[in-house]
User: Fold this.
Amino acid sequence: SGGTDYFLHAFARDLDHYRGLLGQLTRLEGIAHIQSSFVLKTFVSRTAPLLDRPAAAAPVQSAKQKPPAAN
Assistant:
């Protein structure tokens, strides 16, 4: 469901390069609508995931439970 059938992530050197890509895409059969978004500045660039593996979840203690007694 939703309004997007395909998501294409492309890089363009400049506006002229983008216009050429857009021209090629609009000539393809079955393309009815194209929506574009642009990244003007990159704040963070990663080559690896932020975390190597999911962190172990700490046990959740409900408000009704009493903490264990100290020995």
